[in-house]
Amino acid sequence: MTKFPTSDSRDHTVSFSESGPSGSSGSMNRRRFLAYAAATPVLTVAIRLGLDSAAPATAAAVVPSPPDPSEVFDIADAIVYASKPTMGLVVLEVGEDGQVRLELPRQEMGQGITTAMAMLIAEEMEVPLDHVDVPLADGRPELMFNQMTAGSCTLRTFYDPLRVLAATARARMIATAGRQWGVAPDRLSVRDGVVHAPDGRNASYGSLSAAAAKLSLPDLKVSPKPESEHKIVGTSTPRIDGHDIVTGRKQFTTDVAVPGAMPTMLRRPPTIQGTVEAVHNAAEVEQLPGVIGVTTVPTGVAVMAETFERARRGVNALDVTFGPGPIDGESNESIMQQLRRSIVPLAVPEVGAQTVDAEFEWPAANNAALEPECAVADVGSDRAEIWSGFQSPIVAQQRIAQELGLTQDQVTTHVMPAGGGFGRRVFWDAAMEAALVSQALGRPARVMWHRTDDMRHARVRPPTYNKIRASVLGGQVVSYEQRVAGAATDFRQGLGEILTYSADAFPTVGPRKAVGNDLFEEAVFTLMVSSPYNFGAYTKEMIPVKVGDGSTSFGMNTTSYRSVPCQTARGCEEIVADELAALLGMDPVDFRRAHVKDDRARAVLDKAAEVAGWGKRMPAGFAQGVGYHLESRSHHACIVELDARDTERPRVTRATSVLDVGKPINPLGLQAQMLGCLIDALSLTLTAGLHIVDGLPLEGSYSQYHFARQDDSPLEVHNIVMPPNDGRMGGSGEVGMAAPTGAIANAYAKATGNKPRRFPLHFPVDFEPIPPGKLPEPAFP
Amino acid sequence: MPSYTFTANGENVTVDAADDEPLLWVLRDMLGITGPKYGCGINVCKACTSLLDGEAVNPCSVKVSTVQGREVTTIEGLADGDTLHPVQQAWLERDVAQCGYCQPGQIMAAVALLQRTTNPTDAEIDEIENVCRCGTYVRIREAIKSAAGKLG
Q1: Which residues of B touch A450 (CB under 8 A)?
Q2: What pLDDT does A46 receive?
Q3: Comparing A17-26, A531-540, A677-686, which segment has the lowest mean pLDDT?
Q4: For A506-523, what is each residue's pLDDT tens digit?
Q5: Which residue of B9, B40, B78, B124 to mutate against A (max A Cβ within 10 Å)?
Q6: 3-class secondary structure, A478
Q7: pTM of the model
Q8: DSSP 3-state assignment of B115?
Q9: Domains defined along chain A, listed by start
Q10: Contact A37, A569 (CB under 8 A)
Q11: Cα torsion through A337, A338, A341, A347, rounded to 10
């Protein structure tokens, strides 16, 4: 038992400060008077320690496995823990126009957190949803570890503090009206942001805001609504930015109107992380039509111009000598060989045991967010402003300040909503480039990577090799071992610091020791990759491998990818689960039902089987497949139907997804996350990967990197979100990756008779690679 | 530098641009019309999909010289004042978008499809090549069918 999260105290204190008129707008109705900060500790999250693995009758015949660390304390707990001390600095404001505003210290990249936050606020304050604004906060260093978007835990982190904060604002409004009218607060009610007295008097939040800001209320008693009274939370609610999106008004990084910020592209080396040795014709390129300036930064040679096309042409006109990069000698096969060699031997199975032995390979993959790497920077001699889709704006601010020779407080990082992230935006590569270019050229810069560079030079999901041995003895699974070797994942984006800070709270020696040794990846693996089955002796191990010639501190340039190690590692386990079921002569769903540790797991499997019509007769070339996954405390089951009549181009025609997050805030948003994960997993399983050849991926655009399109997408999806159950909230941004991976691979095995081992399953070089160096021409007719 | 005049979302505009300047950068970098998004620059991701005289085009691969005197409609010009186009409305009703970056292009591609046919088949919807990295395809399909029902 650890001490930190066991409190179920509802004690909280509320501090109060006044914010003057909004700096950006002088108009009276935009003034924001009332600002509340909920000082820590707010409502302490009651995390149940202990295991939910009471063995039900159906699982009596299986060999139990010991609890897995992630069941007790997962990566989200680390982030929640590290966020807590500064949660009191998060502020809710109420304007004289009645608008409620939360500057959210997180990244909105499509996952729907701003909508969910607005729902929580509207619920507690009794205001319509469109009275709530949730812009993204600039980088705020005083928030310490509380401004990193990762680990599927934003709602888990904010659910209690934000409800207390909003309830406090509501209570102050009521108290203020009560004083003005001489009526006891408990006789007042609120509807749609208006306080009502029994005699018919009423006052809007906007009209009360200024007075409420001045009122001293030392004895204010606040408690959030009982969940049983929730009217908005738990109901399907469309995105609050939907209208801006469909009208083209939503602003992304390159859309921001920063005066004088001119389009800039870079000429990059012919291999990943190559270096610039000499630029031979910068002065000449500067004279080209529309070109404004040329400068060299560590990652390439930048050309600023009047338009991105003039910048692209300038880039192509450059004559540059490049030095080698750290993986010039590496290709997919050589990397995989190195990973295979790094695996420590598996234990010898017991005499008489039957085994499933399997090896799986996953190549590097590109996060491939549709918005490419981009940033706008305006750097002066003693200050800098940067706009980008930051997931970790505080660490970005620190690192950029260092490179610019400024102090951290001289650098402002404006967090723009990202056009997709999927793990890419935990780093700030384009922001660093924009800052350096702006500093060098003495004017604001709008840096965007050409898609071809984004495909080839952006950080990748590390390639991994999985070796698994499971053994069966006396009709039971008695052991499961999994070793994963992967190109080391870079965690220098802030998560490493969060893990170090949280290490004292870790429940077991394993991850704590790993963090102590700066082996963050092993800690992340232990804190994320669940072992949801009773497979007897159960071991999983991650071996991070530095790929490359040692010329860079980290080897291959990597980042996290949605669900980090889970999609591949757990996806492989789901394939082995089907092969174990076959060995035992069991149906794959029955096998999972018998071996999962948790009734909630069984419930999502049962629901999926029922809705999907599991076991129904399928035409030749078609098959069903099932997968189950547990991550960030959420349970997910997926059953697909695969049309594999054309084995070169199988299509998922129908999918059933059943998600249990414990406490759904916005079912419509959760369903969106499951759709997104399904398409993501489908792509990585069937077609999407990078062919690295001699230090550079061959893939140079979406015509070559085969992320799914409409004609790869299922025609029918049954997307079920289970009702609230035990009250513990799980995550949703990543949990949906592994079950469809297993389901699709298992359906493929059944339909084709081929064991899925190397991914993506269909991975030819079916295109003419764009030559390295110059950026491709527009496809004019 | 030559000068080109065309209609952008109902407004006459004149720009001085190289004849081979892609329309996308004329719209975004010169006219500040940022609804059409960059995703590839070689007409394969379709994020910039807009209408040229009512037909779907990809401005990243259209020379500005070829739009002289013609009518360009981007996502910003689709609604009739505050009244959304039925496709935009269907997008809201189905809560299609996630990050939203590709959606202007998806919507314009759907509008172009529904101008060709009021009752698109699944196979015709499959022909829309616009990449959605968030994976909203299932809702896009539903929204197109819903909008078709209203337009038809």
Answers
A1: 41
A2: 22
A3: A17-26
A4: 766 566 666 665 678 888
A5: B40
A6: strand
A7: 0.93
A8: helix
A9: 4-246 (3.30.365.10), 253-327+373-448 (3.30.365.10), 460-752 (3.30.365.10)
A10: no
A11: -90
